[in-house]
Design a protein that fits this description.
Elements (H helix, E strand, L loop, with lengths): L11 E5 L3 E5 L4 E7 L2 E7 L6 E4 L6 E4 L5 E6 L2 E5 L4 E3 L2 E3 L6 E4 L4 E4 L2 E2 L19 E7 L2 E3 L12 E7 L17 H29 L1
Antiparallel strand pairs: 1-2, 3-4, 5-6, 7-8, 9-10, 11-12, 13-15, 14-16
Protein name: R-spondin-2
Subcellular location: Secreted
Keywords: Developmental protein, Disulfide bond, Glycoprotein, Heparin-binding, Secreted, Sensory transduction, Signal, Wnt signaling pathway
Length: 213
């Protein structure tokens, strides 16, 4: 018999107009569907989203997945497919993969990521392969890849980084000190002083020459 839009008695061993299936045929799963205030039993070949098939000697039933954000599960505590936007990892669902694991977007799963070691100490401050002769240079530190990722498409974190540093030795031993170019104002001032001194010496020379005459 069929009551309403759903063939609620299909696959039933026993069925009622008000409650639908009460007992299912062998190998089918009993599912209690709720619609508003009403609920009725159905006999299904496979359980709907959010449920898994639990086989018992008495009657096979659809049991709800107890894992948060799970779409389908193997058992009440192991999810096989998470809801949209969540990654599957060891039977659980996550918004983002746990530390040490990377996300495979095409499968929405978390797999072992790239594992790197601790940073080394900062290296010697240098510039142009020299450790002197400049005020500022760069120092670098590195770390090793301890474990390669499970997939080649997963990138490893950076294994080298540099930062600006001040050199301990400004001038190289035995080398000539580099002079900074004089500023424009200093050059003009020096030039004016030389011109004044030249004019003064010229005036003295003219005065001495007239006296001698």
């Amino acid at each position: 018999a069929s009551y309403g839009p759903n063939p609620i008695c299909k696959g039933c061993l026993s069925c009622s107009k008000d409650n639908g299936c009460i007992r299912c045929q062998h190998k089918l799963f009993f599912f209690l569907r709720r619609e508003g205030m009403r609920q009725y039993g159905e006999c299904l070949h496979s359980c709907p989203s959010g449920y898994y098939g639990l086989r018992t000697p008495d009657m096979n039933r659809c049991s709800r997945c107890r894992i948060e954000n799970c779409d389908s599960c193997f058992s009440r505590d192991f999810c096989t497919k998470c809801k949209t936007g969540f990654y599957s990892h060891r039977g659980r669902c996550f918004r983002g993969c746990p530390p040490g694991f990377a996300a495979l977007e095409e499968l929405m799963e978390c797999v072992e990521g790239c594992e790197v070691g601790q940073w080394s100490e900062w290296g010697t401050c240098s510039r142009n392969n020299k450790t002197c002769g400049f005020k500022w240079g760069l120092e670098t530190r590195t770390r090793q890849i301890v474990k390669k990722p499970a997939k080649d498409t997963i990138q490893c974190p950076t294994i080298a980084e540099s930062r600006r540093c001040k050199m301990a030795v400004r001038h190289c031993p035995g080398g000539k000190h580099r002079r900074r170019p004089a500023k424009t104002k200093d050059k003009k001032k020096k030039k004016n002083n030389l011109m004044e001194r030249a004019q003064k010496q010229h005036s003295i020379f003219l005065a001495t020459d007239k006296t001698s005459q």
